[in-house]
Amino acid sequence: MPQAATATAGPPALLLEAVACGHPGQGGTPGFELRVESLAVARGEAVALAGPSGSGKSTLLDLLALALRPLAAGRFAIATRAGRSIDVAALWRAGDEDGLTATRAAHLGYVLQQGGLLPFLSVRRNIALSQAVLGRPDPARVEAVAARLEIAPLLDRAPATLSVGQRQRVAIARALAHRPELVLADEPTASVHPALADTVLALLIEQALEEDAALLLATHDPDRAARHGFEIVPVEIAGGGRSRVRRPGPIAAAAA
Fold first, then answer.
1. How far apart are CA 230 and CA 201, in angstroms?
2. What is the mean pLDDT of residues 54-63?
3. Highest mean pLDDT among 9-13, 108-112, 117-121
4. What angle do CA 229, 177, 16 make, to 5 degrees?
5. Beta strand residue intervals within the chain, DSSP E
6. Minimal CB count within 10 Å: which of 69, 214, 231, 255?
7. Three-class secondary structure of residue 44 per DSSP
8. What pTM value is reported for the model?
9. Which is higher by pLDDT, 93 or 52?
């Protein structure tokens, strides 16, 4: 049985309270709204969002990735390892696109469902991309992460020559290469066979623990995620085109 993630002491890496996001309806149809009543995730914790299709799991990930503007935000903050609290809600209210871009690049890592590798870059350059965006190249870090994920022999190959499982390992390496505080993953096991799904989840939670990052993913298979030590947080359909999420936990109460 995989070991469950254990949170480190201190404020949550991610804290949301009274946040709403969504999209308007079209052609007279009602829109969709997701209300995050509370969501707190500490570094070293692993949380899996579960819910039926259309409940808003991917919408929430877009919000957390700073790709979707909130409709309302009472509190939306990311805490850095250096002890700084980034007020994401204030950045959105101010329309500070530069601040949002800088926060996204420095503090978030994202593992896409299909990997999202750039086909014209080698594996090495794909992994280093998150560092390059920040202007902080670290070839030794790329080598170390690749070795830990057992893809070091693939560094100079093209993504098209890799298996599905190898591409997912490269995507995990890229998400971790710049040492983000928060790692997001959008159903990273949806298109792989069961044995590989177990490997992907094990690698994600293992690497998040090693890197002292908060890990949050959307999943269509909560039972499998729970077996790997993820805490399952439901995205509940409330009716009337609305869904909600609530996961306060003791760290949220302590941070209030």
1. 9
2. 90
3. 117-121
4. 55
5. 14-23, 32-41, 46-50, 72-79, 85-87, 108-111, 182-186, 214-219, 231-234, 236-237, 242-247
6. 69
7. coil
8. 0.86
9. 93
Tokens (6 digits) for 10: 């201190």
- Cross-strand pairs, 49: 218, 233
Q: How far apart are CA 14 and CA 65, in angstroms?
A: 11
**CA–CA gap between residue 201 and residue 187 (Å, rounded):** 10
Dist. CA 70–CA 19, nearest whole Å = 7
* Cβ atoms 11, 251 nearer than 8 A: yes
Count Cβ atoms below 10 Å from residue 17 Cβ, excluding itself: 19
Tokens of 54: 């259309």
Nearest-angstrom CA–CA distance, 26 and 132: 39
pLDDT tens for each residue of 191-220: 777 877 888 888 888 888 888 899 999 998
Do the bridges between strand 32-41 and strand 242-247 make them parallel or antiparallel, or are there none, so unpaired? parallel
| DSSP secondary structure code for residue 2 in this structure | P
